[in-house]
């Protein structure tokens, strides 16, 4: 069962976080939107309060999300997925269109990992098994944050990452490595969709995000300047404005 934090009342917005973070990465969005929206921030399986003792798949995580919406009696929502949150949100929106008003795919892609990326995931799993969670901040922070991110943000994220258990990270990396190609789903998305890219994102190229948006029938793409992979934290004003305009 997924743990979540909620704030505010109104139409629901569900924010699904990046790896290896938790619901707390959405603080700037909760503060901005919760005076007029019901902001719901689940923790992905294994992270923060969402304990998990077995490996899981992106499909199972989608089933957990559906169970959470049912539990909260949320019939329809805007679903915002960032990175792994997008790997989860895209197939979810294609499978459950009746539950989605609008979709936001931020810093994410539809295709599965290629061979090199899968190899990188396997190496990360081996390193986590051998040395524990301590290896993760130094590996992930340069990928997550652009060069202009503040030292304070870097330290805050380091602290969040170190709170995760090795198994939480191992299961999430494994779920990402095993995820299937969601490209065929893009043309099936019927809801308005916003694709968000970061000018300096080390994981997702702006061009790839634009291409993904072009394959979605009713979509637009916004590029956040001065931001890496976590534009909601690096440039919260730009991110919130883009989301507000879209809503
Ligand atoms: C994330 O930010 O969720 C992950 O780093 C994405 C990825 O590694 O593919």
Describe this structure in words.
This protein is α/β, with parallel strands linked by helices. It has a single domain, classed as 3-Layer(aba) Sandwich (Rossmann fold), CATH 3.40.50.1820. Helix content is 45%, strand content 16%. It has eleven helices and seven strands. It has helices spanning 27-33, 58-71, 84-95, 115-131, 136-144, 151-163, 166-177, 183-186, 206-214, 231-234, 236-246; strands at 4-7, 12-16, 38-42, 77-82, 100-106, 193-198, 219-224. A seven-stranded mixed beta sheet has the order 1-3-2-4-5-6-7, with helices on both faces. Helix 5 packs across helix 6. The protein is globular and about 45 Å long. It starts with a strand and ends with a helix. The mean pLDDT is 97. D-malate (MLT) is lined by residues 18-19, 83-84, 176, 203, 229.
What would the keywords be for this entry?
alpha/beta, 11 helices, binds D-malate
């Amino acid at each position: 069962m997924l743990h979540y934090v909620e704030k505010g009342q109104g139409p629901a917005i569900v924010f699904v976080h990046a790896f290896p973070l938790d619901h707390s990465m959405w603080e700037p969005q909760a503060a901005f939107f919760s005076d007029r929206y019901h902001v719901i921030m689940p923790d992905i399986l294994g992270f923060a309060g969402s304990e998990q003792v077995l490996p899981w798949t992106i499909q199972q995580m989608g089933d957990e999300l559906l169970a959470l919406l049912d539990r909260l009696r949320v019939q329809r929502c805007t679903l915002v997925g960032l990175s792994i949150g997008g790997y989860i949100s895209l197939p979810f929106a294609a499978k459950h269109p009746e539950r989605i008003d609008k979709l936001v795919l931020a810093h994410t892609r539809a295709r599965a990992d290629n061979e090199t990326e899968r190899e990188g995931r396997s190496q990360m799993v081996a390193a986590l098994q051998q040395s524990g969670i301590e290896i993760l901040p130094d590996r992930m922070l340069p990928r997550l944050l652009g060069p202009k991110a503040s030292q304070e943000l870097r330290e805050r994220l380091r602290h969040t990452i170190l709170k995760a258990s090795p198994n939480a990270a191992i299961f999430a990396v494994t779920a990402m490595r095993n995820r299937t190609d969601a490209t065929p789903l893009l043309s099936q998305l019927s809801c308005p969709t916003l694709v968000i890219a970061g000018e300096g994102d080390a994981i997702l190229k702006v061009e790839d995000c634009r291409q993904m948006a072009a394959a979605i029938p009713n979509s637009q793409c916004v590029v956040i300047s001065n931001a890496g992979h976590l534009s909601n934290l690096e440039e919260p004003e730009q991110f919130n404005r883009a989301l507000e305009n879209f809503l």
